[in-house]
Amino acid sequence: MPTTNTITRDTTVCISLAARPSNLGTRFHNFLYDELGLNYLYKAFAPTDIAGAISGIRALGIRGCAVSMPFKEAVIPLIDELDASASAIQSVNTIVNTDGHLRAYNTDYLAVAQLLASHHVSADDDFAVLGSGGMAKAVVAALRGGGFSSGHIIARNEASGQNLADQYGFSSSTQIGELRPRLIINATPIGMSGGPGADSLSFDPDVIKSADTVFDVVAFPAATPLITLAESIGRKTISGAEVIALQAAEQFVLYTGIRPTKDQIARASSFSRA
């Protein structure tokens, strides 16, 4: 592990905001700060007042902020400008503070698109995405951008699920019913450590068994109940730990202006999960 830089009054601070923060992002960013000799510090928070937290970013001169569930949409009225990556999806996962001006981005989209390609998931596969919140929006946009044409949004909130499906030309339902898609994606907090559904499967076992590829956006733990079951029966899996590493690398560039090498990103990702 690299030696931690000494914190001074000139240290640049970046943070993350999540209902149930993990150490993945914290370890990833701080590893790279040390690796590259940058006077930066990254700290995770679980805000009880999201408006107050965003005001604090501006008031304290915090350089960057990662935004996780369930705040990806709630922060939109609180920032000054939406980058096209966030505006198109109406979901934010990154805020950059430049002299008090807060600009929001979404690097989840890029990460999901890269993973679908690197895992060779065919755009001919039909899919089901569970969820209709901020992360689901990034996932569905990436699927459409990747050429997927047959898909279903499964959301408890019928209105938001229908809106998301209509935006990208897919179908929606509150239950998966008899659908047995080849690609299933959990874009909800089900399976997240510390949450009420930490030990729960986001899809029924028979749906998982019928799928070819199982994708869970939950990053902590990497081996969620969904991923664990899918791997045990030999399905191709994509984990949230992979998503967070790729999107965090893009955040790192936005915060620092420096792009780490692929090797540095891989080692930071490995360290973050150790």
SSE series: EHEHEEHEEHEHEHEEHEHEHH
Task: Give the % helix.
Answer: 25-40%
Total E-strand runs:
12
Radius of gyration, taken over Cα atoms and rounded to an integer in Å: 18 Å
Instruction: Give me the oligomer status.
Output: single chain
Query: What is the typical, i.e. mean, pLDDT?
Result: 94
What's the CATH C level of the largest domain? Alpha Beta
Structural class: alpha/beta
Envelope shape: globular
Uncertain parts: none
Biggest β-sheet, characterized? 6 strands, mixed
What's the end-to-end separation, in Å?
A: 11 Å
**CATH fold call of the largest domain:** Rossmann fold
Number of domains: 2
- Strands across the major sheet, in which order? 2-1-3-5-6-4
What do we call the CATH homologous superfamily of the largest domain? NAD(P)-binding Rossmann-like Domain
Counted by DSSP, the helix tally is: 10
Strand content: 15-25%
Write the CATH architecture name of the largest domain. Answer: 3-Layer(aba) Sandwich
